[in-house]
């Protein structure tokens, strides 16, 4: 569906890129969880447009308002409604959309599916829809940390041809990630990534990248056999995000170049439980968390809206030139970091509640 996500920790987002506002209804949040708007605002501030020189010129405060589901700073166990108003709108930038579908955007597919599409911006296909996901995921993060000690940290590991060196996934913190605008802990690579994005912007072009993510302190047992495997749920969540084109967990595609004797993760005693000496599995075996860190990577394509004139066709099939307007990111990965984190939290919170039903 286009609005609902989750089985027990359920999320329904609403709103388009240039309507009055966007938001979310979150159902299934356990009662008596301490929750204030500041808890949600922290991740929205990291996601918001206009936050630094590398992103879109659209400047939205993205101030969240909790409408329901809490009282005296505690969750009631009832649906939590949250709203963020759209303020810095310029629908006039999209006048040409009525006759020309933008290359690699959802204009054409939405119109063919529904017979109509939002007249400005990307509508529901816009990354602005992710505000609701981030707000809901911030609640999920708080629940996971307080009840399970689970920590989720994502960072930019590649922009264009530039890749960061491997990080210590057991110690990396969000403070390390937010130390620079690109959100890459490898400072040498961060400089090259920044230059790549600036060059793309100056050329009225765009560039893609990769976000890596680690989830620490997961209990053994999260994930359902066969169809709702943990890695399958994560892949579903990540590939539902705008501009995503790839997902890999653990050794990923690089693992295909290894022999089984090198790729297998031998068991060792770790305190009171069994663990693994290596972690090519990415913390998941048989679709179920094994107690090791879960880590994965998400590929984001170059943003489709660019300032260069493009040869294309209008809805009647006539060749035309499109010179897109609007304010868009030359690279989405810096702002995608909190989106990946919060979508991960939604998956883990849902699976944690499913597992709790068994106890």
If you had to describe this structure to a student in words, what would you say it looks like?
It is a single chain. This protein is an alpha+beta fold. It has a single domain (4-356), classed as Chorismate synthase, AroC fold (4-Layer Sandwich). It has helices spanning 37-47, 107-114, 130-148, 174-177, 187-202, 230-239, 260-263, 333-356, and strands spanning 4-5, 10-14, 21-27, 64-66, 70-71, 74-75, 80-85, 151-159, 162-163, 209-216, 244-249, 267-270, 273-276, 284-285, 288-289, 294-300, 310-313, 319-322. It has a five-stranded antiparallel sheet, covered by helices on one side. A five-stranded antiparallel sheet has the order 9-8-10-16-11. Strands 5-6 form a two-stranded antiparallel ribbon. The chain is globular, with a radius of gyration of 21 Å. The mean pLDDT is 91.
How are the SSEs placed, and which strands pair?
Layout: E1 4-5, E2 10-14, E3 21-27, H1 37-47, E4 64-66, E5 70-71, E6 74-75, E7 80-85, H2 107-114, H3 130-148, E8 151-159, E9 162-163, H4 174-177, H5 187-202, E10 209-216, H6 230-239, E11 244-249, H7 260-263, E12 267-270, E13 273-276, E14 284-285, E15 288-289, E16 294-300, E17 310-313, E18 319-322, H8 333-356
Antiparallel strand pairs: 1-2, 2-3, 3-7, 4-7, 5-6, 8-9, 8-10, 10-16, 11-16, 12-13, 14-15, 17-18
């Amino acid at each position: 569906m286009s609005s609902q996500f989750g089985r027990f920790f359920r999320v329904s987002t609403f709103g388009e890129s240039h309507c009055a506002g966007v938001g979310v209804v979150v159902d299934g949040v356990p009662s008596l969880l301490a929750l204030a708007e500041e808890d949600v605002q922290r991740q929205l501030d990291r996601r918001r447009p206009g936050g630094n020189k590398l992103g879109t010129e659209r400047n939205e405060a993205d101030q969240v308002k909790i409408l329901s589901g809490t009282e005296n700073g505690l969750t009631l166990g009832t649906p939590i409604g949250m709203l963020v108003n759209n303020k810095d709108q310029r629908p006039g930038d999209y006048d040409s959309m009525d006759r020309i579908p933008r290359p690699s955007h959802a204009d054409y597919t939405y119109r063919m599916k529904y017979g109509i599409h939002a007249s400005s911006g990307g509508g529901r296909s816009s990354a602005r829809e992710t505000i609701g996901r981030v707000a809901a995921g911030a609640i999920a993060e708080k629940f996971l940390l307080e009840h399970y000690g689970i920590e989720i940290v994502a960072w930019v590991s590649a922009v264009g041809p530039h890749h960061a060196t491997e990080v210590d996934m057991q110690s990396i913190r969000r403070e390390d990630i937010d130390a620079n605008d690109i959100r890459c802990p490898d400072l040498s690579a961060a400089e090259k990534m920044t230059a790549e994005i600036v060059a793309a912007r100056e050329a009225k072009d765009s560039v893609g990248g990769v976000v890596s993510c680690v989830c620490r302190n997961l209990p053994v047992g999260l994930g359902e056999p066969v169809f709702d495997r943990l890695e399958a749920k994560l892949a579903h969540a990540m590939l539902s995000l705008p501009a995503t084109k790839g997902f890999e967990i653990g050794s990923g595609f690089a693992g295909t170049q290894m022999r089984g004797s090198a790729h297998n993760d031998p068991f060792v005693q770790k305190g009171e439980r069994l663990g693994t000496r290596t972690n090519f599995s990415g913390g998941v075996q048989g679709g179920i968390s094994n107690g090791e860190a879960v880590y994965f990577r998400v590929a984001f394509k170059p943003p489709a809206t660019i300032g260069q004139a493009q040869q294309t066709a209008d809805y009647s099939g006539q060749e035309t030139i499109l010179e897109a307007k609007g304010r868009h990111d030359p690279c989405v990965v810096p702002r995608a970091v909190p989106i990946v984190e919060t979508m991960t939290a939604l998956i883990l919170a849902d699976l944690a509640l499913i597992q709790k039903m068994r106890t």
